[in-house]
Amino acid sequence: MAHNHLLELTTKARYAEVNPEGAQSIPHPELRQRMDEVRAVQNGRKVSVHCASGVRSYLATRVLLAEGFDARNLSGGWLTLKAVHPHI
Q1: If phi over 0 gives left and psi between -120 and 50 gives alpha, with beta otherwise, what is residue 70?
Q2: Domain span including residue 72
Q3: What is the rounded distance in angstroms from the CA atom of residue 52 to the CA atom of residue 50?
Q4: Which of 6, 11, 15, 30 is the most exposed place for a label (fewest CB within 10 A)?
């Protein structure tokens, strides 16, 4: 079973803090212009989108869905995930 493609939408500085292994990093304001990069590495997998709080990833998920991607949002973002699972 193929894993989802992980798309990180935070800034480059924030990505250095979070640094999810194997994630593609595209800052949210650049997503529409860099959609071909997502297509190039997605390989038919679902795209799991995340950011710090979940707001940018929600908006990006809507953009990706409109572009035909099978996209999912990490609701609440990394801040919520770390609050629930501090070992991550």
Answers
A1: beta
A2: 5-84
A3: 7
A4: 30
